[in-house]
Write a structure and sequence with these properties.
mainly alpha, single chain, two-stranded antiparallel sheet, 279 residues, 2 strands, 42% helix, globular
Length: 279
């Protein structure tokens, strides 16, 4: 797992602020806070169950992974205080940075490319879900909202905060139950996880873990909710910590020559996925 890490994380994002600084005074930060207000109020246990049932049908469209990458060019993430470039730029920046430091882990390169593809939920073909239902940091439902969650104060208006079954540390879960059994807030992470799993990807479990939990900052940044993890989660979290550095800090103005790297990523897609996927 060790690598000669040639990738050096910059200290400031493309706006000139520290990364993930949710308090910096700017118009961007105000829109980000409003995003989290809406997310925290509307993401409830029942809402997530309904979304997973609807989108788990995979009846929206059939297309390849690369076609989805190109679709993502139409998406800008309102929850992100660090980036306003088209999403495919970020995907390739992430993948190429990983590829440089971990040349033998091709599954990790591909994970870098596809980890955000679930953001197509914002597009009309997928129902044009509101931003708060697609992007932003994720967190468990069915148990207490940890105070490490960004803009935690807005959970006061979430209906689940009034349900005694959901307000204890474990809530409806048992300690050590495994994150696989925990209902996470709905968004692009969980959707892309469903896509990969149901389309029978041959990516390793660590890749699926990264896809599903890369926005779960309360876990991998603050160490919250570890009491719900099992042994496999603990092992996979090591890879998520590696991945996160590239996901977060590759958000820069460095451009990637898409056509130059495209053949390599097409070969990885062919290795780990069917030609056409159900979305």
């Amino acid at each position: 797992m060790e690598a000669e890490c040639g990738f050096e994380a910059p200290e400031i994002n493309s706006y000139g602020h520290s990364f993930r600084d949710y308090d910096a005074e700017s118009e961007r930060q105000k829109s980000v806070e409003e995003f989290y207000r809406l997310q925290h109020i509307n993401q409830t246990y029942e809402y997530v169950k309904r979304m997973r049932e609807e989108f788990g049908k995979l009846d929206k469209i059939k297309m390849s992974i690369w076609e989805c990458c190109e679709l993502l060019n139409n998406v800008v993430d309102d929850s992100d205080p660090d980036l306003d470039e088209p999403q495919i730029e970020h995907l390739l920046q992430t993948a190429e940075a990983i590829r440089k430091d971990y040349p033998n882990e091709d599954w990790l390169h591909l994970t870098g490319l596809i980890h955000d593809l679930g953001k197509v939920l914002l597009l009309p073909e997928f129902g044009e879900l509101p931003q708060w239902a697609v992007v932003g940091d994720t967190f468990p439902l069915g148990c207490a909202f940890d105070e490490s969650i960004v803009h935690h104060k807005y959970f006061e208006d979430n209906p689940d905060s009034k349900n005694p079954a959901y307000t204890t540390k474990n809530g409806i879960y048992q300690e050590g139950c495994g994150l696989e059994n925990v209902v996470m807030s709905w968004g692009h992470d969980d959707y892309m996880y469903l896509i990969a799993k149901e389309n029978k990807t041959t990516l390793p479990s660590a890749a699926l873990f990264i896809i599903r939990y890369h926005s779960f900052y309360p876990l991998h940044k603050a160490g919250a909710y570890t009491h719900l993890m099992n042994e496999e989660d603990v092992e996979n979290l090591k890879w998520l910590h590696i991945f996160n550095k590239y996901d977060l800090y590759s958000k820069s103005k460095v451009r990637v020559d898409v056509e130059k790297v495209k053949p390599y990523y097409l070969s990885l897609i062919e290795k780990y996925f069917p030609d056409k996927l159900k979305w």
